[in-house]
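User: Show me a protein chain along with its predicted structure.
Assistant: Here is one chain, sequence first, then structure tokens.
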Amino acid sequence: MNHRRPALHNRLSILSGLKFCQFGLILIIGFCLGCSEQPDPETVNHDGELAGSEASSSVSLDVTLALNWYPEAEHGGYYAALVHGYFKAAGLNVTIRPGGPGVPVIQDVATGRVEFGISNADQILVGRAREADVVAIFAAMQTSPRCIMVHKASGIEKFEDLKNLTLAINQNSTFGNYLQRKVSLEGCTIVPYPGNISTFLLNKDFAQQAYVFSEPFTATKEGGDPRSLMAAEIGFNPYTSTLITEASMIKDKPDLVRDFTQAVQKGWQKYLTDPEKTNRFILAQTDELNEGDLDILAFGAKELQALCLAFDSTGTIPLGNMTEQRWQKMADQLVECEVVEPGSLKIGDAFTNVFLKLPDVSSNTEETAEQ
């Protein structure tokens, strides 16, 4: 099960009165964008840029990508690959399937129902421990966006300060499990995550799990005073929004996996520098987002710049790269939390970087040519 926060679409019941009118706006936007379930990207960019300018003359292979949640900024690079024609240029007709609560992405990939899916490193390892032979091939976020959202007025500045309050988390999630083992939470009452920020706005002694580019932004917009305590600060830092496929796909169709991965890689490079067109497309893909949510998507795209990039002195680490050390640390934490059995995971089989394209540090001609 995908234990993560219900995001923007569930955030405030006080906005529900506007839903009908906003939904109408979304339908109009969707019509203007050529919004069928998966419209041709060339019909999206009606401002003069030909999204399929790099596209091959024919699309030969249908491929499905299953998201782990509703379309949001955290999926921006995957949608950018569609919107800007990078999938089409690789000869791929890609359908992006939105997710939601309880959507079994790992199972669907492991059983071949879909070719590719999105998950997080902790869930990937849990799936592998349960004999789902899925492999991570691209990690969009190097730093987890998971956080605990508290009130600035509470004076809480670090996890050790979480005392004598109500804390809303998914207790059975890997993060909830890890947090309760690593932090004393003295005097805290643990309650289920409510799926919105209404209680947070009303109760100064209330803290909750969040994604740093989602609930904190909404809380601020609604007059709150949120502070984010990043999960990575206490060592919980799984690769997030990670692309997976089934091991047999890598063995039997390596060219497909390479072409798809490198289109995704290029899509993320585009989204992190120029997200606006993709954000408008994301907005039109779900009635869980409103026309006014473009600012939230823009904020998310900006926050993702720091979360997605890994830097080194040589400048040769490609976007989406992963390390065995990080995967092993995550596996050790899952064992420590008794989520998986010791010895149940072989880290070398859980991920590969072989399909990533190394960055060209000598020139930027490809991106320049597109623009």
